[in-house]
Amino acid sequence: MRRLRVGILISGRGSNLQALIDAVADPAYPAEIAIVISNRVDAAGLARAEAAGIPHHVVADPDRTAFATATDRILRETGVELVVLAGFMRILDTGFVEAWANQMVNIHPSLLPTFPGLHPQRQALAAGVKFSGCTVHFVRPAVDTGPIIAQAVVPVEDGDNEDSLAARILAAEHRLYPLAVRLIAEGRLRIDGNRVLVAGAATPDITALSPTENLASAGR
Ligand code: GRF
Fold first, then answer.
1. Which residues lie across from 131 on neighbouring strands?
2. Measured distance CA(160)–CA(50) in Å, rounded
3. 74 closest CA partner among 57, 93, 94
4. What is the CATH number of domain 106-220?
5. Can you point out the beta strands (E) in the chain?
6. I want to staple 188 with a disulfide (CB 3.0 to 4.6 A). Which of 39, 80, 105, 199 is the partner?
7. Nearest residue by C-alpha to atom 14 in ligand 1
8. Cα of 87 from ligand 1 centre, angstroms
9. How far apart are CA 182 and CA 1, in angstroms?
10. What sign for the dihedral angle of Cα 65, 6, 83, 60?
């Protein structure tokens, strides 16, 4: 089986990187991680790449164009076919984004297009939504936009603060990102305007209520 060559860009902790490292450990998974690039020398995710024996680089150039040029060169020299942003916290040069259009994905901890940008969990709590979640999408020049590949929904609980909601969403991210990358690697996606159509996808059971009625205590 030919495996899609993936390059992963990180800035920090790298727990989504770890989820992908764990996924590609299965020989039946249709993608491999060819390289990890961090824009920060102190990113904890670099140690995860090291431990997994994955080549990794730090590109810390403060100039946006220079960063894009250096990163693009490494990705192309490595034969990368898909760029995966995993907690990558730097705005990318527009030319870079356009060059990798439909070959670059991002994960964001909200149900886009709601709560783009910084602190999406704080935004969700402030808005009072009963559900939030995470989104994997193709990357377009405007931050946190682009055709949506996959989403996972999690409930917002009454006792939640930003940290507890972030942790619940993060657990969903770790399931969603390997799934989305697999769909791409299997060639199952077709982009139609803003929509991403997934060949062979089953319709999920999407019914969710919050709060769920407790019929017994309601005295019925
Ligand atoms: C994740 O919540 C991701 O959605 C967001 O940044 C966080 C990165 O976490 N873009 P990690 O570095 O993958 O642990």
1. 155
2. 35
3. 57
4. 3.40.50.170
5. 4-10, 31-38, 56-58, 82-85, 104-108, 131-138, 148-155, 189-192, 195-198
6. 199
7. 15
8. 4
9. 13
10. negative
CA dist., res. 134 & res. 153, Å (int): 7
Of 3.40.50.170, 3.30.450.40, 3.40.50.150, 2.30.30.100, the CATH number of 1-100 is 3.40.50.170
Residue entry with tokens 């984004």: 97
User: Is the pTM of the predicted complex or chain greater than 0.70?
Assistant: yes
The two structure tokens encoding residue 145: 């936009």
The pair of three-digit structure tokens given for residue 24, joined into one six-digit string: 């590609």
Q: How far apart are CA 170 and CA 130, in angstroms?
A: 17
What is the crossing angle of helices 15-24 and 162-185, to 10°? 40
> Residue 87: CB within 6 Å of ligand 1?
yes
CA of 150 to the centre of ligand 1 (A): 16
Q: For the chain, how big is the Rg over CA atoms in Å?
A: 18
Q: Is 172 helix (H, G, I), strand (E, B) or coil?
A: helix
- Please enumerate in sequence order all residues whose Cβ is within 8 A of that of 48, keeping only pairs 6 or more positions apart, or say none: 14, 17, 18, 21
